[in-house]
Amino acid sequence: MSTTTLTAPIRVNTAGVHARPGLGRLVAVELRKMVDTRAGFWLQVSMVVLTVVVVVVRLLVGDAADHTFQSVLDVGLQPAAVLLPVLGILLVTSEWSQRTGLITFALVPVRSRVLGAKLIASLLLAVAMLAISVAVVAAGVLVSSPGVEGTWSAAAPLIGQSAVNLTAGMVVGVALGAILLASAPAIVLLFALPVSWMAVVSLPVFSGVARWTDYARALGQMTEKVMSATQWAHAGTSLAIWMVLPLLIGAWRITRREMTS
Question: How far apart (Å, rounded) are the C-alpha atoms in residues 104 and 114?
């Protein structure tokens, strides 16, 4: 004698299975990618450690009257200003160097959304690093120069300019990574191209255009002093050439690059 076993059908909730991931989730994934690799993780640790080291060294040199927020901030932001663009490069080129692009672009076929998420994630990291740097600098100045007149003068505009400095540098790194799609040449170009261009525009024949196209000077002066309207115009033109244009070229390249296994 045989018995028949009846089993109830299993209900599976398929709601949202085919919905594309939201921008917030994509940004969270890109932020996670920055710390998943050893290079990304140790670069971020190095930025924080170097920031503390250079601030302490700066505060140990000279008198308390020389330890103003402005002078210490200029030094304290240098590790982030140098290393953040490298992180921006690695964030983009990892899709090709780590061979994750096939998975990433299969799950999110609209590549512009992935690039947008990378940009937002890079900006968030730059702002977070700015907050850490400002906190380290402020703590050091409070300890070394308590009650010194003029220590905190122009602190607010300098922090705002520093935010532009770090975020613009980060976007430049993302743009170079998007253009070359390879970390090594992009990092070399990141450091070599501004120096080479500075040497070119230092020639007398280019004296009239140097201030409008010198990317290193445009970013460097943002942490040194409160900029005038003319200096902002120079910086804006330089960033349009060195940041906006490369980013547009990089976006075009990413959306058309063939993926290989």
Answer: 8
